[in-house]
Input
Amino acid sequence: MFRHILIPTDGSALSQMAIDGGIELARALSAHVTAYACLPPYPYTPFSEVVIEPPAEYQQRAEQEARDHLHTVEDACAAAGVPCTAIVSVHPAPYQGIIETAEKYGCDLIFMASHGRRGLGSLLIGSETQRVLTHTQIPVIVYREARAIASRKLKRLKAET
Output
């Protein structure tokens, strides 16, 4: 089955739920996890006259935020007894960074979150998950928000009984 699972994270609550699900799957399959965070490049614009944050400070802050997100995954993997490697890269398109990382490190599954937007909201906002699905040959498991909510409710019900 799957031996190496890529779990991208952006630090959101939904991403955290997908991390939990991905680690649970990795533990069940005795798989290795590669946690991935994508750093956006510095937002240069020829139209701005004022730089709010110098590029070096922006880079340092973005890297620290990504490392914090990845430490969360590493800690959860350690608690579950799942081997984990953390990867950060700078990429203007997160979906491309996800796919390139999965290919470079030999991942045979991508496990990621999706907000499940449909219709106009999906068109306007776009979906990194949708882009990954349409641009990779690697299998993708999509952890949807509705499933995550149902899972939390089920855990609460079990805890109450």
About this structure: Helices lie at 13-29, 55-80, 94-104, 119-125, 128-135, 145-160.
